[in-house]
Amino acid sequence: MTQKYESYIAGRWVGGKSFSPDENPSDLDNPVGEFADADAADVAEAAAAAKVAQRAWAATTPQQRADILDRIGSEILARKEELGRLLAMEEGKRLPESMGEAARAGQIFKFFAGEALRIPGERLASTRPGVDIEITREPVGVVGIIAPWNFPLAIPAWKIAPALAYGNSVVFKPAESVPACAWALAEIISRAGVPDGVFNLVIGTGGVVGKAIVDAPEIDALSFTGSVATGNRLLQDAAARGLKIQLEMGGKNPLVVMADADLDQAVRCAIDGAFFSTGQRCTASSRLIVERPVYDAFVERMQKAMQALKVGPALAGDTDIGPVASARQFEQDRSYIQIGRDEGARLLWGGETVDVGPRGYYLQPTLFEARPDHRISVEEIFGPVACVMPADDYEHALSLANDTRYGLCGGICTTSLRHTTHFKRHAQVGMVMVNLPTAGVDPHVAFGGRKGSSYGPREQGRYAAEFYTTVKTAYTAA
Ligand code: UN1
Q: Would you call 248 a catalytic residue per the annotation?
């Protein structure tokens, strides 16, 4: 029997009128299951339930919320292998990375269990005699969460956990290509003691479910991670109705390699940053900017390292790079490879699909030597496709690094303290990595970018309180 994934609304599992397939990108002949398509009426019901349930949830003690979040985190951690397998099957991320992501989701719930007990506030003296001032944080209310497919456990976790910790209720829409991971997470949450209506899962398309979430009058705030096009549309809709919004969108992250770098370390950073998770990270190192004296040596080592990468099914033990996650993304990657060829970028490695046995979306890791103005150097591809380009010196490298409409991460490989210090100060990004891949962030610190990458308050760590709470200033005279 095909596994069916349903929505979870007001404490009940809700089937749909129709079902859509949940594909396995490593093996198209063995789908993961199918999910029930929710519609606008389902969202309306979820939002109404969330509104009613939120008041009592906000009135629970921090300890009650901490215990619930801790329970969710413990179960995810205890089941990380099983959840990792599900993630690998559904999204195509190779098993070790998928298990790592499941563990990270568990740790995020545990972190926010602690944060529930540490909701910050301030007490100050007034400028007027006999008056005290208290600044407290209250929940924003009902939070809509729209998550992408590339981190189907970790990103929902880093939005749902703080929402619940600070006393909000949630209407969560996962990407429709990863309903099983969302369902598994919801199933754990449904048994952890969260009152009915506080957490709702609504599975469906952006056009129907996403749109209905933005339009629902009960929604007070919206957290979104996904494409620039969708994010900008949501921003317009949110502005029209004065909705608090937080957007994490694309990246075209530079990794600068200086002539003084440890070249083997730089190649490891570039391979990981550009190609692991099949390049499907908004933090991916998609622009490799290399100082001329080491350019040829770097490219040669990259080619050698890329040759050794094994493309294969997500669950196979020797796979370095899993399949591309969906037909749509596969199409996009291949079309950018064609664009690169057509605009005269030089293909240094890869560019072809791979036959690994089972039918799936297998693509070689691909490296182009490209000019900064080539489309493949400018636009986010979101696949295992990177560009490399030479820089004359550090200043040139920095200006190439900053020459983008995005500003999520920036990396530099160098042994120079001067370059490190300067780059940390002048990279126009939200996150700087020194001698590390641009992708791969810690769960307990601020995450987010500048320029066209992000909008609104940062996610994660203590900074999550900015979005998931609203500040109240109270004046009291004796
Ligand atoms: C990471 O690099 O560890 O969608 C996290 C993304 C990011 C998360 C990246 N929001 O790829």
A: yes
Ligand 1 closest atom vs CA 282: 11
User: Does the beta carbon of 98 lie inside 6 Å of ligand 1?
Assistant: no
| Domain boundaries, position 453 | 4-249+444-477
Q: What is the pLDDT of residue 16?
A: 80
Task: Please tell me the distance between residue 158's alpha carbon and the centre of ligand 1 in angstroms.
Answer: 11
Residue 91: its pLDDT value, please?
98
Number of domains in the chain: 2
Q: Are residues 289 and 409 in the same domain?
A: yes
Pick from 178, 278, 280, 281 the residue to mutate for probing ligand 1's pocket: most ligand atoms within 8 Å of its CB: 281
Asked if 453 and 249 touch (Cβ cutoff 8 Å), the reply is yes
Asked if 282 is an active-site residue, the reply is yes
Q: What distances in angstroms separate CA 412 from CA 196, 233, 338, 379, 435, one per listed residue?
A: 48, 33, 29, 21, 6
Q: Are 197 and 50 in contact (CB under 8 A)?
A: yes
Whether residues 70 and 137 fall in one domain: yes
Q: Is 284 in the pocket of ligand 1 (CB under 6 A)?
A: no
| 200 plus 87 within the same structural domain | yes
Model pLDDT for residues 137-191, shown as the tens digit of each residue: 999 999 999 999 999 999 999 999 999 999 999 999 999 999 999 999 999 999 9
Ligand 1 centroid distance, CA of 473 (Å):
35
Q: What is the mean pLDDT of residues 47-68?
A: 98
Mean pLDDT, rounded, for 88-104: 98
Question: Is 298 a domain residue?
Answer: yes
- CA neighbor of 364 nearest in space, from 378, 376, 353: 353
Give the per-residue pLDDT at 295: 98
Task: State in Å: Cα 150 to ligand 1 middle.
Answer: 8
Rounded CA gap, 106 and 80, in Å? 8
pLDDT at 225 over 70: yes
Q: Which amino acid is at 386?
A: A
Among protein residues, the one whose CA lies closest to atom 4 of ligand 1: 282
Residue 478 — pLDDT band, cuts 50, 70, 90?
confident
- Spatial separation of the C-alpha atoms in residues 43 and 8, rounded to whole Å: 11
Same domain, 199 and 336: no
Share of the chain above pLDDT 70, in %: 100
